[in-house]
Amino acid sequence: MRCQGGGCGLQCVAVVTIDDVARAAGVSTSTVSYALSGRRPISPATRERVAAAIAELGYHPHAGARALASSRSSVLALVAPLRADINVPVIMEFVTAVVTAAREHNYDVLLLTKDEGTAGLQRVAGGAMVDALIVMDVESADARVPALVKLRQPSVLIGLPTEPAGLNCVDLDFEATARACVEHLASHGHRRIALVGPAPGVYQRGTSYANRFLTGFTGAVTALGADVVAEPCDPSRAGVRDCLDRIGPSVTGLVVHNEAALVPLLDLLRIDGKRVPEDVSVVAVCPRDAVPPLPVRLTTAEIPAHEVGTLAVTMAMRLLDSPVATPPETRLLPPVIVPRDSVAPPVDLP
Amino acid sequence: MRCQGGGCGLQCVAVVTIDDVARAAGVSTSTVSYALSGRRPISPATRERVAAAIAELGYHPHAGARALASSRSSVLALVAPLRADINVPVIMEFVTAVVTAAREHNYDVLLLTKDEGTAGLQRVAGGAMVDALIVMDVESADARVPALVKLRQPSVLIGLPTEPAGLNCVDLDFEATARACVEHLASHGHRRIALVGPAPGVYQRGTSYANRFLTGFTGAVTALGADVVAEPCDPSRAGVRDCLDRIGPSVTGLVVHNEAALVPLLDLLRIDGKRVPEDVSVVAVCPRDAVPPLPVRLTTAEIPAHEVGTLAVTMAMRLLDSPVATPPETRLLPPVIVPRDSVAPPVDLP
DNA sequence: TTGAAAGCGATACCAC
DNA sequence: GTGGTATCGCTTTCAA
Predict the structure, then answer these.
(1) Strand partners of residue B197
(2) pTM for this one?
(3) Residue A237 forms contact with B (CB below 8 Å)
(4) HSE on the CB side for A62, CA within 13 Å?
(5) CB-nearest partner of B99 from A66, A109, A113
(6) Are B347 and B275 contacting, i.e. CB atoms less than 8 angstroms apart?
């Protein structure tokens, strides 16, 4: 038990080590270690004395020492797109889910921004700061994939690159989700259905989920024998106006894959004299908690951010537990449509 | 250079250590260390050989070993309120700012949820996982304050508890901000001004900024010789309706300290036949990037989340740098009103 | 300007 | 069921 020079100022508190605990409990260092890890049987009596000593001294094992000795840091890296982007609530829900799930496995979470790119991954992995990595906002041809493959630590992607290269992936099945949206509208009699997509930039950087959604949408609409109308949409008021103009007036069903555009969209529809759902039906793709408080309760296709985040952690834990290489796995969660009040059969216009 | 048993499966990659680098460069271990840290002069020649060896071997110092030997982890804890709360964009902006600023100082960020409470702080601090802590969403009588005071690591609060107990604090000056909002409306001739506050729960848990804002609002309205009308507001449509009803129809100026309520609020005002700003002027308290895309460009009081987050990191770094105890500091950033289109002189009603 | 070596605090192997 | 101790990879003092 010594006093470290740190920022403790005057009331310099002692640093309690495992040896202090051992001494106080009258046992050896290794016994304390094993009592803590449970990796070998300890008699109830000594277990108790150790516990008492730990409590009395206020002992906390030194994470760095532990990481050095055991080659495990009990930290997960989470790479999140932290720009002031559009889908903030979704990101936040992923992050919350990952941190919460990680804590349940006694893991902490180191937060990295996507901006750091490949270098950030190599830094935290190379330095053995983390035992595994969870990477959000994966692009179709994501430059980070080859880097992740080379790391000593396993990783889980939230998203689905075109070439997963043996990495584990979790995501909503956006292709099936798009189909489900179209089919939901079709089942109410709609045939002229358009997609209000994410902002143009999202497509430009090849974001995986946007492309998969578009693929599913195109397929479903084509299967219906209808024309494919799909437009990216800047979520500003002007952007939405523009998008609606490009889509044209004859459409009766709208699939909105752009949470931020919802408020201006519904506002502009109202101004145009289009009622929802009487004149235009709307299905929004959106996490349950992030449905904006609009006059119409929106029918949505859920983005199960919480489930995906939790599942990503579960997969990471499985990879860490398994002593040998596990075959890579891709889990795409099935779509869930929550019918509310924004979809109804189309009124036949002249 | 050995091979560790980790999760590397078959293509087990070597772990490069500082000794490997030293050997490759033909120098001693300590020289490599000093070349890396710059804590003692190194001749250009050896510096170069070391750099070359590092590059060639792909050496990354082991974070745990470094933390153990130096008693510094180069990690900051950030405690964020990660519930699916209301002010998601603001939180996100804080987090982004903190992570970005931390990286500029070569620090990483460990993300904790507020839910973990005092125990979480003690865990990461006691285990020396972090060198300093930044704590968001501080309450007036925050139970974490006494815990933070006892830690060996310095901390910075984002927010202002009633009793800072010697801790460093950063925040927007919410009291002055409320005054500025009222005075802005008053300078346009408004005398009947009401506050649409945060959700009731925010007040109930004694959130610092909400109370300070209310204090400033009350003071400013009283100074104006007017009645104080201030209502908490659940950001659902029904909640906003209710809030407006409680406030009553005679008010001409609204200060909205509730970002999520803005969309339903403006919608309901429109339905009530109240035009903005002709019939009702509105000042919203809101970060610049989170102004919702409404038909009226809102006049806002900015929440400088980015500045506050950056400043928190700067303060933490100063605390870490300074060899002796630094006197605690509280920095409240001055308000900034951004005039846009939602404030105009009141039309005199009969 | 450089090297040698003593820790840092825990883990886990080997012995009993 | 318990104890001794080498080891993890790096920093930093001391000595040259």
Answers:
(1) none
(2) 0.94
(3) yes
(4) 23
(5) A113
(6) no
